[in-house]
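Review form for a predicted model. The reviewer records the input and the model, then writes brief findings.
Reviewer: anonymous (R2)
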Amino acid sequence: MVGNLEGFPRLLALKNPLTKDLQNVWSNAGRVLFEKGFSPALIYVVSDELDILFLDNVPYSGRVEKIGSVIPSFVSATFTLRLQKTFGKTDNVAFDSRVVIVPSENAVMNYLAWRQTNAWRNHNNAYVYWLFRKMGYKPIEAAKN
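Model under review:
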C-alpha cells in the first residue's frame, strides 16, 4: 500500500522541510500502525509517502477497500497530531492510498528497488530546490532550475 499526503508542499510551507523534526513526524505516523497491531513487514518512508508491505499478516483478511480506508485514516490522524505538536501547524492532513498486490517475492523486490530509485531522484530534486531557495531564489525560480 502506498499512502500519499495530499497538499504536501502547501501544508509544509517550512523554510526547509528536509529536517530531522519532519523525519520524526513521518516515522511516528508509520509507527502507529505497529502500535495498533497491523504488523506490517516493512514501512518505507519516501518524501510524502509511506510504502507499507504486508506479507503474512495482511489486515482485514486482505480486503482491499478496508485496508485502503482504515490504514490511511490512522496515518492521517497521527501525522496531523504530531505535525501540530512539532511545528504548531493546525491543518488537518489526509493521506490517500493505493493498494498494490504483487504476485511474488521477486516482484516485491523489483517494486521496492523501483521505489528506491524514484526516491533518490526525488530527494536530489528536493535537495537542489532547497539549495536554490537558500541562495535567495524565489520558489518559482528554484523550481525551474
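Findings: The longest strand covers residues 42-46.
Further findings: The mean pLDDT is 83.
Recommendation: see findings above.
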